[in-house]
Amino acid sequence: MPAATKRSPVSPIKPADAGFYGKLRSITPAEFEAWNETVDNSDYYNFEFIHLDEPHEYPFKDQELVWVRTKEDNWCPGKVTGRVIRVGQTRHSKQGFYYPVNFGSKNHLRKYFAPMNGEIKPNTEEIRILLRDGGWIDDDASSTDTASSYATD
């Protein structure tokens, strides 16, 4: 009988669909400056989502609570971890920002997700309503407890 091997508590970081969209690269100083300007632009934060798969560029910040769509098409709560933003091809534009996110029941999974792929959303009341309407979270979940309970395990 083979001996059990100890697994790392955190999986290596990789984009959610790395095989399809290709490799991610480091953000350039010019791209970082453009991203940094969007953080202060309220237009990015006032977008009204109609459905969960809708792509929209959104400047996520380190430690921000989010919702991510996994390869299995499940929506899970998570937290943006680290300040290392990557750039790569997305479904709807040539280049887009990818954010590192810890997610899963014990935050033991970590991957990069891109807003322009429609696979990462901010933890807002609007998004939680869409998640409830889609049956992804319970109706009785409080406004912030659902995401924060997973993100702080």
What does it look like?
With 153 residues, the protein is an alpha+beta fold. It contains five helices and seven strands, in the order H-E-H-H-E-E-E-E-E-E-H-H. Strands 1, 2, 3, 4, 5, 6 and 7 form a seven-stranded antiparallel β-sheet that branches. A hairpin with a 5-residue loop joins strand 2 and strand 3.
Write the layout of secondary structure elements.
Blueprint: H1 18-21, E1 25-26, H2 29-39, H3 42-45, E2 65-69, E3 75-80, E4 86-88, E5 96-103, E6 109-113, E7 120-122, H4 125-133, H5 145-151
Antiparallel strand pairs: 1-4, 2-3, 2-7, 3-5, 4-5, 5-6
Question: Can I get a quick summary?
Answer:
The protein is α+β, with helices and mostly antiparallel strands. It is built from five helices and seven strands.
Calculate the terminal CA-CA distance, rounded to whole Å: 34 Å
Q: Tell me roughly what share of residues is in helical segments.
A: 10-25%
Let me know the largest β-sheet.
7 strands, antiparallel
Please trace the helix and strand order, writing H or E for each element: HEHHEEEEEEHH
Total strands: 7
The percent range for strand residues is 15-25%
Radius of gyration, in Å, reads 16 Å
Please tell me the overall pLDDT.
Answer: 77
Shape: globular
Instruction: Tell me the number of helical segments per DSSP (H or I, 4 or more residues long).
Output: 5
By secondary-structure content and strand pairing, the structural class works out as: alpha+beta
* Spans where pLDDT lies below 50 across 5 or more residues: 1-15, 142-146
